[in-house]
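Tutorial, part two.
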Amino acid sequence: NICLASLPLALAGLIEDFGQKTPPTLRLLCGLLAAIIATISNGIWLTKIDVPLFDALLAYQPFALCFTLLLSAALPHAFNLIDGLDGLCSGLMAVAILGLHYLATINGFDNFQQISFPLFGCLLGFCVINMLTGRIFLGDTGAYGISFLIGCLAIWLLKDYNNVSAWTVLTLVGYPTIDLLITVFRRLIGIKPIFGPDNLHLH
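Running the prediction step on this input gives:
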């Protein structure tokens, strides 16, 4: 279901990869649509982020759903922003999925491993070829699609296992998250379009 849910976002990326410009707002809406499909079809949303006052708000289901949708739509764009250096985006994706795989393993989450381990193997192989030859690329399709899966898997893990720290999961996706926040802040204070391109990312 999660893979099928990612199709609207991956399709938007595919159109962009074929040279047809898609407005950033459309891609964001596709991300929200994908998040809505994943959340509704799987019944998976965040119920805690290990911040006591905020966790109390997440106990209110409508708020929890909206917060989950926002994060699920934002994370793919965060990873796409850092896809400007060979091996960076795919490498960080591999690290994130390996970390999630480890957390699932020590908690006995066998179904999770059936997705995370093959995905890590694919990312690792891609990363090696991408860094050594530079002849294959994630493109928007790969950056959006795979990072959306990572976000959904992280939310799934946090929802089903209360002993998994949200801060540990956040650390695994820390670099793209920080880059996204800095980018938005930089553009706001510079009175520039939030969705506009620039060459001032961390990489």
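The mean pLDDT is 85. In part three we will examine how such features are distributed along the chain.
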